[in-house]
Amino acid sequence: MLTLYGNPGAASMTPHVLLIEAKAPHEVVMVDLDNGEQFKPHFLKINPHARVPTLIDGDLVLHESAAITLYLCERFPQLDLVPAPGSATRAKFLQWMMYLTNTVQEEHMHYWHADHYIESDGGRKEMQAIAEKRLGTMWAHVDGTIASGGHPYLLGDRCTAADIYLTMLTRWSRKLAKPPASYPHLKALADRVKARPAYQATLKAEGIEQ
Question: Which of left, alpha, beta for 108 (phi over 0: left; psi -120 to 50: alpha)?
Fold first, then answer.
């Protein structure tokens, strides 16, 4: 039995989708971030960074959403959500995963959690405005890449874990003045991922309205 610690709609969402898609015996424990449960001793014992997600698989305790995503794809190869090791497509897959977690996800931290970086109200508003502008540039880049590739997904004709991760992040930008849904090729990709039964089951389990 695997245990995933997460929060509805948070970075735990992609691992949650993969666990359901793999039909793996698992338990999802929702951490009450609004009430500071992540700072309680019982949670800090498994994740000293006070963040979700955290995955427990036997003696293995794993942090970071992208790392958990890659681990689950290898733990359950029947998912067929990663290209073959050593292939050019695998290299591009890894590039997309690193871009999504190191660049797009990090910019969302600036947008949603400016208070982690700046104390003044004015400074936080300025950071949020800059983050929104930068996210717009990123979404335009992703949309243009999908369009130029002429395929339904980031890496071609089949869905990979990078597409699921991307779709999770598009939800985080839903309140932007120009959200990801306003980019036609990006929206079409996200809609394909959202239609997957495991994604739908995750939304239902986490109480999220699509």
Answer: alpha
Q: What's the DSSP call for residue 84?
A: P
Give the Cα separation of 158 and 84 in Å (integer). 13
> In this structure, what are the phi and psi dihedrals at residue 6, rounded to the nearest 5 degrees?
-155, -160
> According to DSSP H, which parts of the chain are helical?
13-21, 41-44, 65-75, 88-99, 105-112, 121-149, 161-172, 184-194, 197-206
- For residue 105, the tally of other CB atoms under 10 A from its CB is 17
What single letter denotes the amino acid at residue 21?
E
CB 66 within 8 A of CB 26: no
Q: Is the preceding omega at residue 197 within 30 degrees of 0, hence cis?
A: no
The model's pLDDT over 155-202, given as tens digits with 9 standing for 90+, comes to 999 999 999 999 999 999 999 999 999 999 999 999 999 999 999 999
Is the pTM of the predicted complex or chain greater than 0.90?
yes
* pLDDT in the model for residue 209: 82
Cα-based torsion angle of the residue sequence 35, 36, 40, 45 in order, rounded to the nearest 10 degrees: 130
Identify whether the C-beta of residue 90 lies closer than 8 Å to the C-beta of residue 37.
no
From residue 195, alpha-carbon distances to 60, 66, 90, 97, 164 in Å are: 32, 22, 24, 21, 11
Both tokens of 55, joined, read 């995955």
Q: What are phi and psi of 147, to 5 degrees?
A: -60, -45
